[in-house]
Amino acid sequence: MSPNLRPLSPQLQEAAKELGEDPRRLEKDIQHIKDWLKQQPHLRARTDDQWIVMFLRGCKFSLEKTKQKMDMYYTMKTAAPELFANRDPLEPKIQEILNAGFITYLPQLDKHGQRVSVLRLGQVDPKKVTGEDIFRMNFMGGDAALLQDDAAVLTGTVAIIDLKGSALAHAAMFGPSSVKKCTTILQDAYPLRMKAMHFVNLPSFSEALTGLFLPLMKEKIRRRVVMHSSLESLLEYFDKDMLPEEYGGTAGPIQKVAEPWRKQFEGLREFFKEDMKYGSDESKRPGKPKTSSDLFGVEGSFRQLVVD
To answer: For residues 94 and 137, is the Cβ–Cβ distance under 8 A?
Structure first.
C-alpha cells in the first residue's frame, strides 16, 4: 500500500530526490519509524504518513537521525511547556502578535523554491506580549509548516528579520533561559531546514538583539546570516514580485500579503487543540529520564539584558 502523502511539484520531487528520498523504499522507511515509535513507551507521537515523512526528509532519510529528532521534538514539548501551551490561534496574546504584523509567510517561494517568512519585531508592543509569547507563536508557525508546507522541509526556509522600530525594550523581552530553549528547540527538534537569515533595518544597538541569538546558533547557520545595510541589497536575493512593498517589492503592502497565511493559520485551531495530547512522559523513558538541564544546559551561565 502506497504511503498517504501529498503530491509534490516537479521542483519539490527533485529536491526530495536530492535529500535521498527513494519511492521504492519510502513505504518501508515510514513503517520503520512507525514500528520504532510503538517501542517508545515515553512518546505520545503522531503516526500519520505525512507527518513522519516530513521528519524523514528533514533528516535526509537517515533513520537514526529521524528517531533522534522525533524524540527531541516530543521531549521538548513537555520540557518547555511555557513555549507549547495555550496554542489556540485565537488566544489573545497570539492575536496581539498577529494584529501587530510580527510574522507572515510569503505566498510565493523564492528563486530557489524556498519558503520565506518575514519577522518584524519592532511592530510588537513589549508591554503587551513577552518573549515567550513570541517564541510560542514562532513554534506554532513551525508546526503549521510541518503540517502543510512541503517546501519548508524539502527546499528549506529563509527568514527576513526586520528590526525597524526595535528598541532596547524589545531586546529585554528575551531572557537568556528562554533564548537558549528556543535556539535548542529550533535546531535540534524541528526538521525545518533554515537556509538563510536576512537582517534589515538594523538599529545602532542591533548587536544587543543579534548577540542574544547568533552565538547560540550552530556555525552552519551563522554562516547563512546576511546583514543588509540597505533594502536594495535584498533584491540580490529575492525577486521583486514576491516581496512586499515595504522591502522594495511589487507584491503589495505586507498587511495584504499576510492575509492568506493568517487566514490559513487561524483555520488550524483543531489541529493545535489536538496537538496538545502529544509529548513525552520521562517517567516511562527506557534508561535515564531527560531533564531540563540535559536538554538546555546550565541556565546560570547566561546573563539577561536589563533595561531601566
So the answer is: yes
Kind and range of the H or E run holding 240: none
- CA pair distance 210, 195, nearest whole angstrom: 17
pLDDT digits (tens, 9 = 90+) for 104-126: 999 999 999 999 999 999 999 99
pLDDT digits (tens, 9 = 90+) for 222-250: 999 999 999 999 999 999 999 999 999 99
DSSP, collapsed to helix, strand or coil, labels residue 280 as strand
Q: What is the grid cell recorded at 36?
A: 520504532
CA within 13 Å, CB half, 305 = 20
CA-closest candidate to residue 32, choices 4, 69, 66: 66
The answer to whether 118 touches 160, Cβ cutoff 8 Å, is yes
Q: Residue 1 — pLDDT band, cuts 50, 70, 90?
A: low
In order, the DSSP letters of 33-72 are HHHHHHT-TTEE----HHHHHHHHHHTTT-HHHHHHHHHH
Q: What pTM value is reported for the model? A: 0.92
What the block records as the C-alpha cell of 92 is 489573545
